[in-house]
Amino acid sequence: MDLRDSECAQFVDAHWGTLVQRVKMVMPIVDELRSGGMLEWEPYCKIRAAYTHQDKMRELYEVLHSGGNKVKSAFFLQLVKQEPFLLGDLEISSVILKYQKKICRDYQYVKEYNSVPGQNVLLSERYTQPLILQTYRGQQERQQELCSSGERLQQVLNSSNSHESSYLNSLFDPDDHRISPGAVILQGNSGNGKTLTVQKIMLDWASGDLFKERFDIVFHLMCKEINCILGEKSLVEILSNNSGLISDQISQILQHSPEKVLFIIDGFDELRLTADIHHMSLNTDPVQRAPPEVTLCDLLKGRILPESFLLVTTRSTATDTLSNLLKAPQRFTEIMGFSEMRVKEYFQKFFQNEELFRKAYEYVKANETLITACSIPLICWIICTTIKERFEGGANVTSGLETTTSIYTDFVSTLLEHHCQGSSQSVPTLLRSLGQLAQRGMLEQQVMFDEETVNEMVSDPAGNPFLCKFLFKRRIHQETMFSFMHLSFQEFFTALYYVLLEDEESLRKVRELLFMDSCEHCPNEFPPRFAAVVQFAFGLLNKDVRHTLSKRHGLVVHPNAQNHLKKWILEELRTDYPYESRTLFWLHCLYELHEAEFVKEAMEAWNNIKTCDASLRRTDCWALLYCCQCVHSMNELCINATDLTYETLSMILPALQKFKNLR
């Protein structure tokens, strides 16, 4: 081993604590140092007289320390001769320590979707533990989750799944049969935080806070990066490109203790696989070359390094493909997103100011649609970012905040730009096919779709970030079902489908929708069956939302649909006896539209607002306040005073002065 004295001395100093505990051949080393003239008689006697190996090493260090680099170098050379296996362990430990420092540097910051070059945020200021479940849920339970919102959604999650929740440090714990999984599947929908969770695992392991005794080293492989590797590569070469370690170091680590190696395979659904991938290779050697995706599959199957452990993240649409490739024993886990408690924690971390946090969180919590959507970490980030911009611009968060439709539009646009790069479909085609499926579900009152129906209407559902795939047991076989992330997204895509169709077809669909929800068709139904779809449709007419769709995706909301929606609501409001049960519905339609001139026209046509039978929520107060601010004066407001709280009364107070009569 060709090392300089200073390098040898540095190694000895860096590992002295371990050397004290583990060197057993102390006297043979001391004898050689004495015969080489590196050790005087008196210290030699003191070392020999010491009772334990550890005490002998402590006495020896006094000599090494006073002798400087030359004596430490001589000790190192004797260590190579007398304790070769220990030295190998220490060299590997030294390599891993450097690797951990690199991981800490590389993984401590988050690069967000809107980050400009050089702008990063600490992971600790963003990461919040999502709800992770270790169970498959039945169809009825899934449907409840998809249709529930606000507090009801939290009740559904807490009542059925609290005992199945998991934390990162327990992913590889033994099960009830005392069997530890060799591979863990971490499934999650797009935007639910899989990649950020992997980043947290890497940083915590490198910092010594996670898997400290279980795994000596953790490698992170991203499937979208593996897709870009050209030519044939061995596992060692792939790891070398990814980790910054040289091939020899990686080979040494893998050979030393493969049972203490964890591979994190991130984004399996993005890996490009050929149809014959199951039969392409029987490679068992980490240095044998093959196409990168084949090498990775041999690792997943356990052909390469069968003693090692695997953690694989994937969207739900690729889970069954992964399960068929993956070695046993397997454990299935699913990232469900944030519980309400975690949403609150996320807001606290994001704003880092108690007053701003309280304002933002209380505002969003009062909007059942938004607080439900916040269970998706990406939407939580979009909402926090939007509110923070308003704070920084000096605006009041409760004054004209981005509409619910604009939040959903930003979310869909983000997924289209960052999670659909490999799609063979154009954006208009992809959205049209999703819209057709969503509309069919709304008309047939379905939130779950069988595989045949989805394949008829959506090409490549497995690559679609807006669809979730579930496996359910049916007697002696399995059934595959799909859904949107939540009923609210099905409603959003239905509205988007209607307003983005070709001009005449769009107009026809909008007419059908409004007829089905008209007061004449179902006068006693509140909220109207398609209330959310109609409100999203009005939100999609908003000038800023239309600009986003046009600029980012080339999508055009056709004028005829716009004109018909506006004409319809004016006719509804101009009737002599508008249905009071729909007052709040109309207010929210106008709020989502957020077009001051038209809202003024609509309010003047309405003139008398009656909400006698409805209890005003905070979101209703915002809608009422916004609509009233667009008009100079109105005739009469009739509300149920017994339902007013001090808070809601304070919110609508500026609007009350616009009315000539209050009842």
TrEMBL record:
InterPro entries listed in its UniProt record: CARD, CARD8/ASC/NALP1_CARD, DEATH-like_dom_sf, NACHT-assoc, NACHT_NTPase, NLRP_HD2, NLRP_innate_immun_reg, NOD1/2_WH
Localization: Cytoplasm, Cytosol
Main location: cytoplasm
Coiled-coil boundaries: none
CDD domains on file: CARD_ASC_NALP1
PROSITE patterns cross-referenced by the UniProt entry: CARD, NACHT
UniProt keyword annotations, A-Z: ATP-binding, Cytoplasm, Hydrolase, Immunity, Inflammatory response, Innate immunity, Nucleotide-binding, Repeat, Ubl conjugation
Keyword Repeat applies: yes
SUPFAM superfamilies per UniProt: DEATH domain (SSF47986), P-loop containing nucleoside triphosphate hydrolases (SSF52540)
Protein's GO biological process: inflammatory response; innate immune response; regulation of apoptotic process
Gene3D superfamilies per record: Death Domain, Fas, P-loop containing nucleotide triphosphate hydrolases
Annotated NACHT domain residues: 182-318
Molecular-function annotations in GO: ATP binding
GO cellular component, one term: canonical inflammasome complex
A Pfam family matched in the record: NACHT
SMART domains: FISNA
Domain CARD per the UniProt entry, residue ranges: 4-94
Keyword Nucleotide-binding: yes
Descriptive protein name: NACHT, LRR and PYD domains-containing protein 3-like
Organism of provenance: Culter alburnus (Topmouth culter)
